[in-house]
Amino acid sequence: MEAATSRRETATTALLDAAERLLIESGYAGLTTRRVAAEAGVNHGLVHYYFGSMEELLLQVLERFTDRLIERQAAMYEADAPFLDKWRTAMRWLEQDVEAGYPKVWWELQAMAWNHPEMRDRLVRVDEVWRTLLRTHFASALDEYGIDFPLEATVALVVAFNKGIQIEQLSGIATGHRELLDWIDGWLEEKAA
């Protein structure tokens, strides 16, 4: 039984890894169960056997990727450091996350979900994980910096801001990003003083 569990874990991890790589490289339109299975080095029937569908495999790719980033973000926000340092770190990670492929995975699945309500519900849950993390850590920052802006509005603004920058970067657009980030940085420095 232990050997079967180990084989299953090895195969599912290989499929998740392969689907993530291919989703980033080729996008959803270029994926087939056979292509993912070949990339993973397993029989193509295992995609449906372990995941039920390609959509489920891809959703689990997004959820797993998100879990890794949430763990990183939570550790950063929980560190004993000024909020401004945390903000700067988070903004550096925007570009790193584009290079790692996270926004591409997100937007590929977001586009699919527009026509699949069950996928949309899962993406909304993933989005809520990010918003919950920000709510938890931004409430004290608003107080610390004396910013009179509603918490929920702040979270919505930061989420939309991050997604906007990332989708523009995916599209090859960087105009004004550095200037905007520098302005926000200076504004937060003034607030911290």
Please outline what is shown here.
By secondary structure, this protein is mostly helical.
Give the topology, please.
Elements: H1 2-26, H2 33-40, H3 45-51, H4 54-78, H5 83-100, H6 102-113, H7 117-145, H8 151-170, H9 177-192
Describe the structure.
The structure is a single chain. The protein has 193 residues and is mainly alpha-helical. It is 83% helix and 0% strand. Helix 1 (2-26) packs across helix 3 (45-51) and helix 5 (83-100) packs antiparallel against helix 9. The radius of gyration is 19 Å and the shape is elongated.
Considering the chains and any ligands shown, give keywords for the structure.
elongated, mainly alpha, 9 helices, 193 residues, 83% helix
For this structure, the quaternary state is single chain
- Structural class by secondary-structure content: mainly alpha
The N- to C-terminal Cα distance equals 61 Å
Rg:
19 Å
What is the tally of helical segments?
9
Secondary-structure element string: HHHHHHHHH
Strand content: under 5%
Overall average pLDDT: 94
Morphology call: elongated
Low-confidence stretches are none
Residue share in helix: over 70%
Number of beta-strand segments: 0
State the major sheet.
Answer: none
